[in-house]
Design goal:
Length: 401
């Protein structure tokens, strides 16, 4: 059986990591990997996480399974963080949540759920619309589950802005049996987010067309703030009959390797969401059966303590401010180096990523001539920039323009 297999292409990010590690250049810069880094290039464990972990060590009495839904307290607290405590849908008992192995696990659970749900629709086809561009793994995740992936316009590479009119026009043609994936905040890979007014218009189209929104929220708190970044999620949940939310605690809690996320579904009423939840639990049982518990326990401890939650919000603000500061620092340094091209769009975007807006040949030159690593699309991880390398980075960019 194995002898008939054809090798799959290597993941471009992982290949980039290998090249970076092998590079001996003293000023090499990694702008490819999507994890937060501090000024010295380290991805730290948050202090609030360390305290929660010690509490877990002191109080945990068993490693037995919690159950396929994960911790009910974690699910409730994360649901309140995402949807808001006073959200009408939450108060009406129309939302159900399962813990998942990271945000990617949440997306795969959602994908399998969509396939099963589509069997009861008129079209019997599972179709999801994703933004152009979107996170590289979205397409593979959904296609692997048997969902057909289509795209809607989103980012204009020439003007470095949203194709909002084109986006609205495309979504206005989406049928009620389809699913539309939206990024809650900190759009990956463009950094271009919908404004609140634009969210309102997309929600209106969602109501008119009747499709199911799936919102991917991997960076709550990395854009403007925890509440501000959840505007679209909260307004959508209060406005539609059906919705899916996939969330991750990897970035905002720094719990990358703990693999903790959640998949939430919203139904028309309690009876409807309970039926849908039974399908969701069946999907979970068929994929991984029981979710990881350790990371969820840490988040549960933090969000359940006023003191630890405030410490988390403070630490999250430090990370967010550093990202936003890096954006401004790079733009100002490019101006200082005499670059005439307008890079101000970088300072206007949000989250960990931006497109630098250079072509693949220039990306290759940065790698070969200056040991600066990014993917061919010129998407850069803003967290890879710091006081120690921004001068060299800007100088190198100036040389290849």
């Amino acid at each position: 059986m194995f002898d008939t297999l054809t090798a799959m292409p290597a993941d471009p990010i992982l290949g980039l990591m290998t090249k970076y590690k092998q590079d001996t250049h003293v000023n090499k810069i990694d702008l490819g990997v999507g994890v937060y880094k501090d000024e010295v290039g380290h991805t730290p464990i948050l202090n609030c996480v360390k305290k929660a972990e010690q509490h877990r060590i002191d109080t945990e009495e068993t490693k037995v399974y919690i159950g396929p839904t994960g911790s009910a307290q974690f699910n409730n607290l994360l649901g309140e963080l995402a949807f808001g405590k006073e959200n009408p849908a939450l108060l009406a008992d129309r939302i159900r949540t399962v813990s998942t192995p990271g945000g990617t696990g949440a997306l795969r659970v959602a994908a399998d759920f969509i396939v099963r749900a589509s069997q009861s629709t008129a079209s019997k086809k599972a179709v999801i619309w994703v933004s152009d561009p979107t996170w590289a793994n979205h397409t593979g995740l959904f296609e692997a589950a048997g969902v057909e992936v289509k795209t809607y316009p989103y980012y204009d590479y020439d003007t470095k802005s949203l194709k909002f009119d084109e986006m609205k026009a495309a979504l206005s043609q989406v049928g009620p049996d389809d699913v539309v994936l939206l990024h809650a905040c900190c759009h990956n890979p463009s950094g271009m987010d919908l404004s609140e007014a634009q969210w309102d218009q997309i929600i209106e189209i969602t109501q008119q067309q009747g499709f199911t929104p799936l919102i991917d929220m991997a960076y709550q708190g990395f854009g403007v703030g925890v509440d501000e970044d959840a505007y679209g999620v909260r307004k959508m949940a209060a406005s539609v009959d059906n919705m899916i939310l996939c969330s991750s605690c990897s970035k905002n809690f720094g719990l990358y390797r703990e693999r903790i996320g959640a998949c939430s579904i919203l139904g028309r009423d309690t009876a409807s969401v309970n039926v849908a939840f039974s399908v969701l639990l069946y999907v979970v049982r068929c994929i991984y059966s029981m979710p990881p518990a350790h990371g969820a326990a840490l988040v549960e401890t933090i969000l359940g303590s006023d003191e630890l939650k405030q410490e988390w919000l403070d630490e999250l603000k430090i990370m967010r401010d550093r990202i936003n500061g890096n954006r401004n620092m790079l733009v100002n340094k490019l101006i200082e180096k005499g670059v005439k091209r307008d890079f101000s769009f970088i300072a206007q975007q949000k989250g960990m990523f931006s497109f630098l807006g250079i072509n693949p040949q220039q990306v290759e030159r940065l790698q070969q001539e200056h040991s600066i690593y990014m993917v061919d699309s010129s998407r850069i991880s803003i967290a890879g920039i710091g006081l120690g390398n921004v001068d060299y980075l800007a100088e190198s960019i100036a040389k290849i323009l």
